[in-house]
Fold:
Amino acid sequence: MTPKPTTHTNLILTAEGCEDLPATRLPDRIVTHWKPTPEEIELLNAGGSVQLEILGRTHPPVALNIVEDMSLPEGVAVEAEEPSLIIIPGR
Structure:
């Protein structure tokens, strides 16, 4: 899967050994958008699954959704701003 920036991206998460992750910081959550590659779509259509990998020893609450476009959850708005950068220490 490839992380995708959106018109409401206001945060870039980065960590050593990982590619930058464009995200949208909301008051109560962080939202990221991902696009599967054609090969991944083929695997999913053949019965494959999406694997969520959490780095670290604890598992925060998460949600995986399938959305039609790269919009935010209903009723949520973000003021436009330059993306800030958060560097996550190495593992």
